[in-house]
């Protein structure tokens, strides 16, 4: 891969091998901004839905090959027994959900699962552990690093979600070969305390900052259907879109209510049930305000019919979790997903095709441009 740094290019242009991506022509893309106002995000979110999808599809085509969808497989490396109180989670030790606390799995098992995922076409492998944080988990960290190294050796992008980490831990993970660290903000700042009380929204942001500063790609998104309002969707997207740089990956989960959890057992949740159009609206708004991020349809995708998923791809989603399971909930399988992509003229994204650690530097104002030469490397690269 050749990299040429072009100073004074204010928007990212990706040029790919046009022989193999014949239908994709790069265009002058809209700038990536991190200075959105909440009102601006709200206006986009509240556009007539078809107009919003059209706008999102247009932005998507300016920044991505619209034929590509990343296939990612999630593997649970430590199930249950988590001390946190996330009101949607089957793995919290505070709720009786039938999910027992298990010991962390050995690296060999995880590596075998990564090989299986690769053989089935996944190019990113995500490993999740039900931990609050990594404090005092030296042995666990050693094992996770071994897993990351093995996934890297397989030529796959790696991602882990291990709870809160400090900068030193994030750096250790980067040195082991980690591509991305997942830490969701879950919902808006306002709605967050109604869902989780054992760690604050700001603690979430701190972990994300630690990861970013360590030079690891940030994967951060949330869950729709936690009893929130439309304004909370706006607040959620605004929080992500105004981070110092946009998350490289943005998972959008749709709540799968689990019996035994407070949200799964709350009869009032039936009235607040999420409608499909809200999912599309959120995906499309995310695409417009975070043009460079990968928008990942995550848990609950199996509840959407195929044409509903296709509409999400049209609205800018370009990554999915696929495989046997989504931690404790169901997942669409590899064969089903490959058939779906083929039917809709889509194809799996190659690994490391798009891993942008710092999405958003283009929002530097002109004064900053003078000081830094107009953009940081990732914002001014032409990739051939
Ligand atoms: S979502 Fe994560 S942090 Fe929250 S209870 Fe579940 S495993 Fe623990």
CATH class: Alpha Beta
Unreliable residue runs = 1-22, 361-384
Can you tell me the CATH superfamily? Answer: Aldolase class I
Radius of gyration: 20 Å
Shape estimate? globular
H and E order: EHHEHEHEHEHEEHEHHEHEEEHEHE
Question: What is the name of the CATH topology?
Answer: TIM Barrel
Helical coverage, percent range = 25-40%
Q: How much of the residues is beta strand, in percent?
A: 5-15%
- CATH arch. level architecture: Alpha-Beta Barrel
Number of helices: 12
Whole-number average pLDDT? 86
Which molecules are bound in this entry? iron/sulfur cluster
N-end to C-end Cα span = 6 Å
Number of domains: 1
Determine the structural class based on helices, strands and strand pairing: alpha/beta
State the total count of DSSP E strands. Answer: 14
Q: Describe the biggest sheet?
A: 10 strands, parallel
Structure keywords:
disordered N terminus; 10-stranded parallel beta sheet; alpha/beta; two-stranded antiparallel ribbon; TIM Barrel; 14 strands; globular; binds iron/sulfur cluster; 384 residues
What features would you describe in this structure?
- Helix 1 (38-45) packs across helix 7 (230-241) and helix 2 (49-63) packs across helix 9 (276-289).
- The N and C termini lie close together (6 Å).
- The chain has one domain (33-359): TIM Barrel (Alpha-Beta Barrel), CATH 3.20.20.70.
- The protein is globular and about 50 Å long.
- It is α/β, with parallel strands linked by helices and 384 residues long.
- The longest helix is centred in the middle third of the chain and has 16 residues, at 138-153.
- It is built from twelve helices and 14 strands.
- Strands 2, 3, 4, 5, 6, 7, 8, 9, 10 and 13 form a ten-stranded parallel beta sheet that branches. It has a two-stranded antiparallel ribbon with strand order 1-14. Strands 11-12 form a two-stranded antiparallel sheet.
- The structure holds iron/sulfur cluster (SF4).
- The site of iron/sulfur cluster has 8 residues, from loops.
């Amino acid at each position: 891969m050749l990299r040429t740094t072009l100073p004074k290019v204010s928007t990212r242009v990706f040029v790919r091998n046009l022989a193999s991506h014949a239908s994709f022509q790069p265009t002058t893309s809209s700038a990536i901004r991190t200075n959105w106002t909440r009102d601006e995000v709200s206006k986009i979110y509240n556009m007539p839905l078809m107009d919003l999808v059209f706008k999102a599809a247009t932005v998507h085509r300016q920044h991505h090959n619209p034929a590509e969808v990343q296939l990612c497989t999630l593997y649970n490396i430590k199930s249950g027994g988590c001390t946190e109180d996330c009101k949607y989670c089957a793995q919290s030790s505070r709720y009786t959900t039938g999910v027992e606390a298990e010991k962390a799995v050995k690296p060999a098992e995880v590596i075998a699962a990564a090989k299986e995922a690769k053989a089935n076409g996944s190019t990113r492998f995500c490993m999740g552990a039900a931990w609050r944080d990594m404090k005092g988990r030296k042995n666990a960290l050693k094992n996770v690093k071994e897993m990351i190294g093995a996934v890297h050796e397989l030529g796959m992008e790696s991602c882990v979600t291990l709870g809160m980490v400090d900068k030193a831990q994030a750096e250790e993970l980067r040195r082991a070969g980690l591509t991305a660290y997942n830490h969701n903000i879950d919902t808006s700042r306002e709605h967050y305390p109604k869902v989780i009380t054992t760690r604050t929204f700001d603690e979430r942001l701190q972990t994300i900052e630690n990861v970013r500063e360590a030079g690891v790609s940030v994967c951060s998104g949330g869950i729709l259907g936690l009893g929130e309002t439309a304004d909370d969707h706006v607040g959620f997207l605004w929080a992500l879109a105004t981070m110092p740089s946009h998350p490289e990956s943005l998972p959008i989960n749709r709540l799968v209510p689990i019996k035994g959890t407070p949200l799964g057992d709350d009869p009032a949740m039936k009235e607040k049930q999420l409608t499909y159009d809200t999912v599309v609206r959120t995906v499309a708004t995310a695409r417009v305000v975070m043009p460079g991020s990968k928008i990942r349809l995550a848990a609950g995708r199996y509840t959407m019919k195929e044409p509903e998923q296709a509409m999400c791809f049209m609205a800018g989603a370009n990554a999915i979790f696929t495989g046997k399971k989504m931690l404790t909930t169901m997942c669409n399988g590899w064969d089903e997903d490959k058939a779906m992509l083929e039917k809709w003229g889509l194809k799996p994204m190659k690994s490391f095709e798009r891993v942008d650690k710092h999405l958003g530097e283009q929002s530097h104002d002109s004064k900053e441009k003078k000081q830094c030469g107009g953009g940081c490397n990732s914002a001014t690269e032409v990739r051939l």
